[in-house]
Amino acid sequence: MLKIGDKAPDFKGTDQDGKVLSLSSFSGKNLVIYFYPKDNTPGCTAEACDLRDNYDRFISLGYEVIGVSKDSEKSHKGFAEKFSLPFSLISDTEGKIVEAYDAWGEKKFMGRTYMGIIRKTYVVDENGTITDIIDKVDTKNHSAQIIPPTKQ
Q1: CATH number given to 28-146
Q2: Could you read off the pLDDT of 44-55 as tens digits, one per residue?
Q3: Chain segment 104-115, per-residue pLDDT in tens
Q4: CA distance 52 to 87
Q5: Nearest CA to 139 among 71, 21, 8, 43?
Q6: Mean pLDDT, 10 residues at a time, over the chain (152 residues)?
Q7: CB distance 105 to 118 below 8 Å
Q8: What are φ and ψ of residue 141, in 5° steps?
């Protein structure tokens, strides 16, 4: 189980534009890595749009943002275009990144138990160290959970 102070696991994946990204692609930068279950679903759309609406603030404070789910590059491309998302969405169809970041596990919905992506966000500093883990995500106000509005 990852915890604050651990080195973030390295990863390699392709985003919605076919660009290969890895943890080292963000070396020297602060990074927000958010894991979400599925493109174009209500909670995931609210979360992505909140991050989009606050993206300039993240950039001005020195943070990059990336999303990760098991959806395909094609699905990510449509989702990013539909909602004008300015950040990369990595396609992790094999679930390697999701598992490395403890974002895969048992879920319950409407009395049904199944395995799936657990909504979770990691904040990683410029040295690749995890500085925060948010596992109780408020999809409509997620940006404020990552960087409180009072922090400038």
Answers
A1: 3.40.30.10
A2: 999 999 999 999
A3: 999 887 889 989
A4: 8
A5: 43
A6: 96 96 93 97 96 96 96 97 98 96 90 92 96 95 86 53
A7: yes
A8: -135, 35
**Residue the block writes with tokens 């539909």:** 82
Burial of residue 102 (number of CB atoms within 10 Å: 0-12, 13-18, 19+): middle
Token pair, residue 55, equals 């993206």
C-alpha to C-alpha distance for 54 and 140, rounded to whole angstroms: 12
CB 74 within 8 A of CB 82: no
Q: What are phi and psi of 16, to 5 degrees?
A: -65, -15
CA-to-CA dists, residue 1 to 36, 60, 100, 117, angstroms: 18, 31, 9, 15
Residue ranges of domains in the chain: 28-146
- List the structure tokens of 13: 């994946």
Q: What are phi and psi of 48, to 5 degrees?
A: -60, -40
Q: Point out the residues that are catalytic.
A: 44
